[in-house]
Structure formats: C-alpha cells, structure tokens
Write a structure and sequence with these properties.
The radius of gyration is 22 Å and the shape is elongated. It has six helices and no strands. With 129 residues, the chain is mainly α. Helix 2 packs antiparallel against helix 3.
C-alpha cells in the first residue's frame, strides 16, 4: 500500500515549477492525518488537490502541443489511485472502513514508554534494597 501515492508525491515534488507547492500540500496532509481517521482520504486529498493545481498550472504555462498528454497522464494517475482504493471507498460508504487515530497512537506509545521506565526504576530500587 502507498506505492501509487508515493509515486505521485515524487511526480509533483520533482517538478521544477511547483515542488514547493507539493511540500506545502504534503505538510498540510501530514497535519490532517492527526484529525482525519481515514488515511486513504488524506492521501487521495493530496493527489487530487495536487492534480488540480498541476492542471491549472499547465493550462496557464504550458504550450498547447504538450498540454493534452501531460493532463491525460496526471488524471490517469488520479483515476488509477481511486480505482485502487475502491474497496476502501466501498467500506467507508458501508461504515466498515478501518480507522487510524495517529494522535492516540502517539500518546499511547508515550504512556507505554513512561510506564516501562517507571517499572524499570522501581525494579532497580527493589534490587538496591
């Protein structure tokens, strides 16, 4: 999972005219991971948003002889990503899609680490007695 989105990130990130937009959009989507519990929605938001931006950019700045092939490739990429996520979309519509709460996972991990640290210090104190 995630290979198509990673390729899309690379496609947008290494374009000389809007690499910075790709980084800003990636940062925004990274923050969205903390609030939206469906990871595939965040990744699709990134790819569709960047594809819209790229289409507008190419409409304004690209010569018309290259416009159609570039736009077709960009939107084929979007189509394939949506096609590959069709099971996720179906489960979301049925209310059965798996959720990921990144904020909860991070706080849970910190709690587990602190409890392990407390246990090890308590064990060390018991060994010293």
């Amino acid at each position: 999972g995630g290979k198509g989105v990673a390729c899309s990130l690379g496609m947008f990130l290494f374009h000389p005219d809007f690499w910075w937009v790709a980084l800003v959009a990636f940062a925004i989507c990274f923050v969205l991971f903390f609030f939206i519990k469906y990871a595939f929605l965040v990744t699709l938001t990134y790819v569709v948003g960047m594809s819209i931006y790229a289409t507008v950019h190419f409409c304004i700045n690209l010569t018309w002889d290259w416009f159609l092939p570039v736009i077709i490739l960009i939107w084929l990429n979007v189509f394939f990503l949506i096609f590959m996520h069709r099971s996720n979309i179906k489960r979301l519509a049925e209310g059965r899609e798996n959720t990921i709460n990144l904020l909860e996972k991070l706080t849970k991990k910190k709690k587990e680490e602190s409890s392990q640290t407390e246990q090890s210090t308590a064990e060390e104190k018991n060994e010293d007695k």
